[in-house]
Design brief:
With 1124 residues, the chain is mainly alpha-helical. Among the domains are: 15-221, no CATH class; 557-720, no CATH class; 721-903, no CATH class; 924-1122. 63% of the residues lie in helices and 0% in strands. It has a two-stranded antiparallel ribbon with strand order 1-2. Helix 33 runs parallel beside helix 35 (648-667). The protein starts with 8 loop residues before the first helix and ends with a helix. The relative contact order is 0.03. This is Integrator complex subunit 2. Its main location: nucleus. It holds the Pfam family INTS2. It is found in: Nucleus.
Length: 1124
């Protein structure tokens, strides 16, 4: 067997002349292949005798006939070998007694100390160990070797990890090496508990020829190979080349792996797992690479070292990086180190793929003179491209992570490889990108003017060949975009961004000093890419077809994004709008992460000038016509969607652009006003034509593929279109798209699909005569999806007025309501406008007005100015209230935007809606409370007051604005306020209600002195019954209210002085009632008093008012007495 040619010079000198077990022989022992064993030569067979003799003499566990035959062959094989007799004699010893003596000696050594010369196994040594061994019989030979071995093992255990070298005659004498090895193997086999094989292996590292003894020991116990290797590695040093012990351990393991090469890579795996002996891992890889050399593929050495440095295990990366750094610091002979061998092998592999060609083309292309005999590497073969890329990444990792400092030869060869020209394939594109980033990361590789010129010529070639590479290789992400991106970063001095780009492309995090990029910056900004050249080139770069997140690498979109951020387009007056529009149209799912930042920075460049000195330096927005062309055919059902020209991704991105643009326009109103600029806002008619809710619903099912686009659109909708984000609508949509809807779709018949909008119109026309047909069609339509219902929306809404006629079954109304709610999930705004126009009151000879979306946002109460019959039809009233809620939200957003546009947000309005001052921003005021307050401020029929106060939980908010309502000049609002207050006092008998009621009584007293006779009658007749409720809720108001009633009666009496005879009796009774109420407690039971018919029956307003006052007082007295 050929001895290893590298490693520790000590071990190499020891083992040069020794015969090792060959891989063939070891495999035969592993498999007990008697035929192979028989083919071994005598010297090879001699090394395996201990195991073979034991195999032949010991009783086998295998009693099969085949083993019996094999055993005969083994005996025949051993019969002619002389050394077998001595091994048989060794096996005849009483090993039990030997083990007991060995145990006693260990105890004695432990008691007296490891250095004691006393020995139980061996006593009275008259000569040296070698002579004693020669003259001794088998039992004494066993004792001599065992005593020496135990002494070494004890010293190893006491050394605390420090390596020592033990001189021993038994293991050094070349004459008795084979006999000593026989004894060693027999001892270990017969006394395994006393001599664990891993401990024996550890002890053998400390003696001369230890590796040879170890290989023989393992060869005679082949199943212990992995155990021994793992034990040696686990007990090994973290850095094996730093010490003699580490080098001896490494070489011993290399000998073992030479003996059993099939397990070499497994042993290498143990090295990495334990993070011990890095030199062994590299050495085993070098041995494997030489044996398995592949001319074209990536070598095992490149793969192994790359895996260590570029893997995810930081502990392994640090461990191997330390090996590289320490190896460079050693001053000893480099050719004997594993690191030197690794570097040499890598350099040979690198040079092996560099064909030397005399390049005349470079001389022609160069702008400066070059020597005519300059020879460079170019024309990289296609089969070498992948290997070249792997080598570049490995050298990047070695230099950037492990701190390898390349020699002049390595730097020269690396530069030649990086500036070579690969074929136009995807692998070639990848190679050029890696080479370019390596030049940026390690600029020290370019040290001479000739090398710098070579790099400049290569970069110029990159620019020239970029389009050809992209068209030929079929790779969208080419190196041209990376060149452009780096040039932009250099122009904007974003060196950290270049470093991030380099690390991302190389796939590793390395430290790059910004100062090292200074020369490259000069070359890029002054010689290759000026800023104007960058801008002009970027706009001509074709957009990426079907741009999605599946296309990785650096794309034109990255370049355009950076140029937009640096405002290069506006600075050099280059229009970029068309490029961005084309790229948005060429998108697909999954969404590329750079699209949303691109839109945001584009919007900023439209609204914000590049500099204050040039306010016109902005980009142009996308036109309305271009926007509308994207949404052509988007509505009309699932069957029409196939005819759409643009993808759903493009439509959603354009929607995001419009909403973001409008929001940014409002947010920058003050800044734009200060600069006297007013960019154009998109018209409301454009927004009406975009099916926003339909698109959002489509996006909801693609959330995983759209990334953050869906959530961004929801945020913009909640801000600018809150009426499209009503919670009830989302819940309704969940019901429509749930399991029940799926079951209904299973019931869908061809008849349901065949009903056309025209048939539905004919069925509605026949409603006065028959309801059956329209009911049948409507029931079938409930099985359709929301998008399939869109063609029926106009017919459904235009005929709602007919459903208000008497005799229409409730089931039809409820089905219409259900269909309307389904349509509301895909086309709410258009549906609302059609519904409002359809439910207008029909007045003969008066042409109905057609309201628009804008009209309804400005005045949401148009919704309530519908046909009065709607209020008596619950299904249609539900639709009306739903629209009212939506338009109130839309109106709020519209008014807020209007205030921002007119800069009114800095000057709070002084004419706030009654009762809402200080309330609109209060966190405790909900939207429902504001709506109730608004309705109450406008007033509504008093018959509804008991129902609203008792049924609406938030009506207590009205107590806040009733004082302001009472103070209004309109008599109707004052009456409504007092009537509302009377019901609130009964419902909410609180201190706050008491103070407002007392205020109302005082105001009534004040109004008594200023109202005319007609207004007095109109005011007090409906409000006097409210005083009874005040007294019922708050008895302390009794005196004030009674005084007010008497005062009202006196004023009425003074106005009819000519009829004093008729009035005096009433006034007298009022005085008596006030003074002695108990006597009149039952008078309210008389209907004549309640109705005021107990007197003259005059129709005079004052007389009627007096009768009403009398009835009110009697009711108050009766209430108070009955309460007592």
């Amino acid at each position: 067997m050929k001895v290893l040619g590298a490693g520790s010079t000590v071990i190499m000198a020891e083992c040069t002349s020794l015969q090792f077990v060959s891989p063939f022989a070891f495999e035969a022992m592993q498999k007990v292949d008697v035929v192979r064993l028989a083919s071994l030569s005598d010297p090879e067979l001699r090394l395996l005798l201990p195991c073979l003799v034991r195999m032949a003499l010991c009783a086998p566990a295998d009693q099969s006939q085949s083993w019996a035959q094999d055993k005969k062959l083994i005996l025949r094989l051993l019969s002619g070998v002389e050394a077998v007799n001595s091994i048989v004699a060794l096996l005849s010893v009483d090993f039990h007694a030997l083990e007991q003596d060995a145990s006693k000696e260990q105890q004695l050594r432990h008691k007296l100390g490891g250095g004691s010369g006393e020995s139980i196994l061996v006593s009275q040594l008259q000569h040296g160990l070698t002579l004693e061994f020669e003259h001794s019989d088998s039992p004494r030979r066993l004792r001599l070797v065992l005593s020496e071995l135990l002494a070494i093992m004890n010293k190893v255990s006491e050394s605390s990890g420090e390596f020592f070298f033990k001189s021993s005659e038994l293991f050094e004498s070349p004459v008795y090496l084979e006999e000593a090895a026989d004894v060693l193997c027999i001892l270990q086999a017969e006394l395994p508990s006393l001599l664990p094989i891993v401990d024996v292996a550890e002890a053998l590292l400390h003696v001369r020829n230890g590796a040879w003894f170890l290989c023989l020991l393992v060869a005679n116990v082949p199943d212990s190979f992995n155990e021994v290797c793992r034990g040696l590695i686990k007990n090994g040093e973290r850095q094996d080349e730093e010490s003699l012990g580490g080098r001896r351990r490494t070489d011993a393991l290399r000998f073992l792996c030479k003996m059993n090469p099939s397990q070499a890579l497994k042993v290498r795996g143990m090295v990495v797992e334990e993070c011990h002996l890095p030199g062994l891992g590299v050495a085993l890889t070098l041995d494997h690479t030489k044996n398995e050399a592949s001319e074209d593929g990536v070598s095992d050495l490149v793969c192994f070292v790359s895996g260590l440095l570029l893997g995810t295990n930081a502990k392994v990366r640090t461990w191997f990086g330390t090996f590289i750094r320490n190896g460079q610091q050693r001053k000893r002979e480099t050719s004997s180190s594993v690191l030197w061998q690794m570097r040499r092998q890598l350099l040979l592999e690198l040079m092996g793929i560099l064909p030397t060609v005399r390049s005349t083309r470079i001389v022609e292309e160069a702008d400066v003179e070059m020597e005519p005999n300059v020879s460079v590497y170019s024309g990289l073969k296609e089969e070498h491209v992948v290997k070249a890329s792997a080598l570049l990444r490995l050298y990047c990792a070695l230099m950037g992570i492990a701190g390898l400092k390349p020699t002049e030869e390595e730097a020269e060869q690396l530069l030649q490889l990086m500036t070579s020209r690969p074929p136009a394939t995807p692998a070639g594109v990848r190679f050029v990108s890696l080479s370019f980033c390596m030049l940026l990361a390690f600029s020290t590789l370019v040290s001479t003017p000739e090398q710098e010129q070579l790099m400049v010529v290569w970069l110029s070639w990159m620019i020239k060949e970029e389009a050809y590479f992209e068209s030929t290789s079929g790779v969208s992400a080419s190196f041209g975009e990376m060149l452009l991106l780096v040039a932009m970063y250099f122009h904007s001095n974003q060196l950290s961004a270049i470093i991030d780009l380099v690390c991302s492309t190389l796939g590793m995090k390395i430290v790059i000093k910004p100062s090292s990029l200074s020369r490259m910056k000069t070359i890029f900004t002054q010689e290759i890419f000026t800023e104007q050249v960058v801008t002009a080139h970027a706009v001509r770069v074709p957009v990426t077809s079907n741009l999605s997140a599946n296309i990785t690498g650096f794309l034109p979109i990255h370049c355009i994004y950076q140029l937009l951020r640096s405002r290069s387009f506006t600075k050099h007056k280059v229009s970029i709008k068309d490029w961005i529009y084309r790229q948005l149209c060429e998108t697909s799912t999954p969404l590329h992460p750079q699209l949303l930042p691109l839109i945001d920075v584009y919007i900023n460049s439209i609204l914000t000038p590049a500099s204050k000195s040039n306010p016109e330096a902005t980009n142009q927005p996308v036109t309305e016509q271009e926007i509308l062309s994207i949404f052509q055919g988007v509505i009309g059902g699932d069957n029409i969607r196939l005819n759409q020209r643009f993808s759903i991704t493009a439509q959603l991105l354009v929607l995001y652009y419009i909403l973001s643009y409008e929001e940014a326009l409002l947010a920058n109103t003050k800044t734009l006003a200060a600069m006297q600029r007013k960019p154009k806002s998109y018209s409301s008619s454009l927004m009406d034509q975009i099916p926003i809710k339909f698109l959002i619903r489509q996006a909801q099912g693609l959330q995983q593929e759209l990334g953050g686009l869906h959530s961004a659109l929801l945020r913009l909708l909640a801000t600018n279109y809150p009426h499209l984000c009503i919670v009830d609508d989302w819940i309704c949509e969940e019901e429509i798209t749930g399991t029940d809807a799926l079951l209904r779709r299973m019931l869908l018949t061809n008849n349901a699909k065949n009903h056309s909008p025209k048939q539905l119109q004919e069925a509605f026309s026949a409603v006065p005569v028959s309801h059956t047909q329209v009911m049948q069609i409507l029931e079938h339509l409930t099985l359709l999806s929301a998008s399939e219902l869109i063609p029926y929306a106009e017919v459904l809404t235009s005929n709602m007025n007919q459903l208000l006629n008497s005799g229409v079954p409730r089931r039809i109304l409820q089905t219409v309501n259900k269909l309307w709610m389904v349509l509301n999930t895909v086309m709410p705004r258009r549906l609302w406008v059609m519904t409002v126009n359809a439910l207008q009151p029909s007045i003969k000879f008066v042409r109905q007005q057609k309201y628009t979306q804008n009209d309804l946002m400005i005045d949401p109460l148009i919704v309530l100015r519908c046909d009065q019959r709607v209020h008596r039809c619950p299904p249609l009233m539900d639709i009306t209230l739903h629209m009212l809620n939506g338009y109130l939200l839309a109106s709020k957003a519209y008014l807020s935007a209007h205030l921002k546009e007119t800069a009114e947000q800095d000057r709070p309005s002084q004419n706030n809606t009654i009762g809402l001052v200080g309330q609109t921003d209060g966190p405790e005021v909900t939207r429902e409370e504001l709506k109730n307050a608004l309705l109450a401020a406008q007033g509504y029929p008093c018959e509804l007051l008991p129902l609203t106060v008792a049924g609406i939980p938030s009506m207590h908010i009205c107590l806040d604005f009733i004082p302001e309502l009472i103070a209004q000049p309109e008599l109707e609002k004052q009456i409504f306020a007092i009537q509302l207050l009377s019901h609130l006092c009964i419902q909410y008998a609180l201190p706050k209600s008491l103070s407002v009621a007392r205020l109302a009584v005082n105001v009534m007293g004040t109004l008594l002195t200023v109202l005319t006779q007609a207004k007095r009658y109109a005011f007090f007749m409906p409000t006097l019954p409210s005083l009874v409720s005040f007294c019922r809720a708050f008895p302390p108001l009794y005196e004030d209210i009674m005084s007010l009633l008497i005062q009202i009666g006196q004023v009425c009496a003074s106005d009819v002085a000519t009829q004093t005879r008729d009035i005096d009796p009433i006034i007298t009774r009022l005085q008596q009632i006030k003074e002695k109420p108990s006597g009149w407690s039952g008078i309210c039971k008389d209907p004549s008093y309640k109705n005021g018919s107990g007197d003259t029956g005059s129709m005079d307003p004052d007389v009627q008012l007096c009768h009403c006052i009398e009835s009110t007082i009697i009711e108050i007295i009766n209430m108070s007495v009955s309460g007592i």
